[in-house]
Amino acid sequence: MELTKIMDRKMKYIFTYLSVIILTVYFTACSELQTNIEAPKPLTVHEEGILVDSSADFHGNLVRANNWDMRSCQQCHGLNYEGGPVNESCLTCHNFPSGPENCTTCHGSASSMAPPRDLDRNTSNIARGVGAHQVHISGNLKGRTVSCTECHNVPGSAYGDLNHIDGDLRAEALLEGERVNTSTNEPSTSEYDPALTLFVPDPEYNLSELTCSNTYCHGYFKNGNLTNAPVWNDPATSECGSCHGSGTNPLPKTTLEGGSHPTETDCSSCHGGVVDENLNFINPSKHIDGKLNLFGNDIDY
Fold it and tell me: Where are the alpha helices (DSSP H) in 230-271?
């Protein structure tokens, strides 16, 4: 009986000892495990560089890779990009009218919707997406301001309008504007010359050569250079003598050259409302405007 009690005490001692060891190991391991655990990262569908302009994961690059279709953005940020289910507004940064769908989000700048910047973020005018945009639309020193609609199909209130965003990621040069297609030497005009034909432009943009041809605004008019084809991203091809005259000579075609223009070389004597005696422009808006400014009057010719 006494032996049994002794054995019981020994077993309890062993059990207690083992329990202490087991609990010590358990809590030590648990403590170490807690020390090594990292806080879980918040759930997100975007990478860290989503707001970093220089990152490959910048959201602008994602939108471009998605062919500029922003409908997937609306699923989380709302139809008006005001926050949506994720309560993250896009309008904090995109604070122009229409938010991210504003023209300048993809091309142009805060001062103009036309490039530079182009869709590839180029700013040099030698880039095909930039070219002579600003020369045409900003009211340059050589001619009237050209609206975007004279060359392109400009969307209405929705950036996703037909023929605006499509698969080729370029703006088609439709050249359907009135000034691009102005006809000259109409029989009804006071300057009509029956010895010459009716000059009706047939505008064409060559996608591979980046040239415009057969346009009123670049020489397809009475006494102009009918074969002129200026290169879109080379300003040197649009000097005065390229549209009328020849090279450095700006004088339109005379009778000897197959035209009807007088041989008078002082342009200001007849076109004083446009240029002075040194061929400096007085009023560029009266140049390349579809009219002939003659002795102070703007007439069809």
Answer: 240-243, 268-271
Q: What are the tens digits of pLDDT across the range 137-186?
A: 876 678 888 889 999 988 876 777 767 887 777 788 899 999 899 999 99
Q: Is the bond preceding 117 in cis, omega lying within 30 degrees of 0?
A: yes
pTM score over 0.70: yes
> Which token pair is 200?
């009706």
Encoded tokens for 170: 């370029």
- Burial degree of 51 (CB within 10 A; 0-12, 13-18, 19+): exposed
From residue 142, alpha-carbon distances to 22, 113, 283 in Å are 92, 21, 9
Output the pLDDT for position 38: 61
DSSP 11-50: HHHHHHHHHHHHHHHHHHHHHHHHHHPPPPPPP-SS-GGG
What are 211-244's pLDDT values in tens digits?
Answer: 999 999 999 999 999 999 999 999 888 888 889 9
* Cβ atoms 247, 236 nearer than 8 A: no
* Spatial separation of the C-alpha atoms in residues 212 and 205, rounded to whole Å: 5
The overall longest dimension of the chain from CA atoms, in Å, is: 144
Distance CA(84)–CA(62), nearest Å, equals 19
> How many angstroms from the chain centroid is the CA of residue 264?
43
Residue linked to tokens 């040239």? 211
How many Cβ atoms sit within 10 Å of the Cβ of residue 181? 19
Calculate mean pLDDT across residues 85-110.
Answer: 91
How far, in Å, CA of 26 to CA of 19, rounded? Answer: 10
Closest CA to 72 of 61, 62, 57: 62
Could you identify the residue written with the tokens 């023209």? 103
Handedness of CA 56, 59, 60, 63 (dihedral sign): positive
N residues, the chain: 301
Token digits of residue 6: 């002794």
Boundaries of every domain in the chain = 47-101, 111-301
